[in-house]
Amino acid sequence: MIHSTNPYTGEKIYSFQPLTAEEVSEKIAHSNEVFKDWKQTTFQERAKLMMNAADVLEKRKKEYGKVISEEMGKPIGQSISEIEKCAWVCKFYAKNAANFLASEEIKTDAEESFVSYEPLGVLLAVMPWNFPFWQVFRFAAPGLMAGNAAVLKHASSVMQSANNIQKVFEEAGFPKGLFQNLVIGSDKVEAIIENEIIKAVTLTGSEPAGSSVAGLAAKKIKKAVLELGGNNAFIVLDDADLEKAVEVGVNARYQNTGQSCIAAKRLLLQEGIAEEYLEKYIDKVKQLKSGDPLVSDTYIGVLASEKLAKDLEKQVNESVKMGAKILVGGKRDKAYFEPTVITNISEEMPVFKEETFGPVIAVQTFKDLDEAIEISNNSKFGLGVSLFTEDIEMAKKVAPRFNEGAVFVNEMVKSDPRLPFGGVKSSGFGRELSSFGIKEFTNIKTVYIK
Ligand code: NAP
Question: Could you tell me the distance, in angstroms and rounded to a whole number, from the CA of residue 205 to the centre of ligand 1?
Fold first, then answer.
């Protein structure tokens, strides 16, 4: 059986009978049948349904938000905001897909030559629990608008949310079978990738899962997009607006109780402001309200499971043994981990070189920008970096020196339907969102007429 356990109460709240291999194959075959008609629909027809999906999300955000909070411990206000963001991405692609995927004429020696964007077929999405709705919608909204069908293998811990996502598409009026949640464990993923109907796979999750899934896809010559971990630096220069940098910096690390791939996991402070900044930062961290995820003013909930909290505790304890110093927090109680600030960091420590998936930040100081860039780039990950400075011209000039998928100046790294999202190095490959994301799962076809 697959279970959802409320990490705040420890109660088992939902149980699911996993599908058999035959049932999975039948569902995939059904998606393929539906795809044959769906790919013939116009963008206007698809857009109408995608706008309906946005309405359903708005209508049911409290109901489905509560399930998110219960299944993975996210504070309810943040769960509801997550669903609102999903409505945004649905509307965004409903409005823009036709334009993004319009045929493009290219002048050559032909009488006419152009590129057209065609759907691939049935896609497999393997998704994580940390933003149970958002991770799925940022793939599904462009994927379906491009004319594809999709099957979802969601994280085992959030299967009720996964079922609710399927319900959103059904209630919006999409053909039954176009988007299907598969209630399965990760042991079934290999056979799905091997199924000839599946044309491509996208995975958001950890490095080992990404490496395994992309490896299987490569064996079958199928495209993969990987959105993996991150270890973003949040850099504050001496000339930065400190109040703003503190406010954004705390949010960048602690929202979603620190369980975000793009969270600011390493705080890099220039020597001139380090002391003052840290004092203000710690003040704010101490004010963050921990508590029951279902209470509306809770900001820090629990981690998605006690095991995850124990993993984090181990990273912190090992770092402390190596000389790190806890300035605030550091303690665990079941799945709860206190908002934590750690200093005295060296490069060998887990809190520096590994991704910490919870409310813990590692603080370092630096002399000049060259040193900050060096520390920031000293990571196997490359998802994004935040740079706080009043010198915008200088920021633009140094942006290419960061080995990252995104550089945000005077803002936290965030995903936005209008901008491409993705990483380099061990953070993965391919892009989601914007015009880039919708083209990932299309056949970019050349047509040449003479
Ligand atoms: P995870 O353990 O890799 O799980 C992600 C998904 O992959 C789940 O559906 C999981 O299923 C499945 N899975 C795990 N191992 C697999 C395997 N060997 N073969 C096929 N499927 C497999 O990751 P997580 O712990 O849920 O999520 C946290 C990680 O995701 C962090 O590293 C975080 O940075 C990353 N993340 C990245 C982004 C991004 O956009 N770059 C966004 C969010 C999170 P089961 O649940 O059944 O194991």
Answer: 3
